[in-house]
Amino acid sequence: MKILPECFPCLMRQTLNTVQQATTDKAVQAAVLREVAAYMAQASAEVPPANFSQPMYAIVAQRTGVADPFAEVKRQTNALALQLLPEVSEQVRQSRDPLGKALHAAAAGNVIDAGISGGFDVQADMLRQLRQPFQVNDLPVFRNMVKRGSKVLYLADNAGEIIFDTLAVDQIQRLGAQVTVAVKSGPIINDAMMADAIAAGLPGRCTVMETGSADIGVNWDNASAALRAAYDDADVVLAKGHGHFETLFDARHPGLFFLLKAKCPVVANMLHCHVGDLAFIHAAHLHA
Prior knowledge:
The mean pLDDT is 91.
């Protein structure tokens, strides 16, 4: 997916949201916005929108001296998600289709996104999303591809959200698959890092690895050789969120699935759904 004109205002809103987390100094905020705008003016338009986020984040960190502006947001959303987890877990347990319900819960957790907007209520929004069915749902294809002994690479998205990912990981493991969860190696917006995986209780439950970089989605120029090997070796790759959709949209991995909430018209149009809809789609269907 290459950046489109509609993406630039969204990137500037993301920049403002990020720098406001780091400082209340209006002069610094304005300086960051000007520097990011200058960067975007000369950067290649042949890359996904997510590729602009890491340089933007570096500018914010350099100008403010704050390496992780969303550290407290991540801590709070993890805590709130953990409070809600027993209720959501019970819904999965009582479901006639625990795998489908767990994936639904993981997708609903994608509402926790401080990059696009900090305006979310973890409990209210999560429960509301759980009442909203998938508008695009390739669960039957996924179920057919995940077999005993399958290797599944689960590309995590945000902190807080990763708490609900544990439900999907558990259900995938019940199918006999080996699951590896990948988290970011450094702070980028409120994306999940190893500390968030630990807060979710994932180590010891499954293999957890870092991507080798601090990028929204996957930037193969920065990612580790270990991530590339895990990706290539996986029978199924489950990629959470907008950033992974943007950066892996053109990938041709036969077992690649996207699980996300459509948060902008560009992505919603590509998924053939509406903004706010939940989607679980086999990547092959995007290029059919």
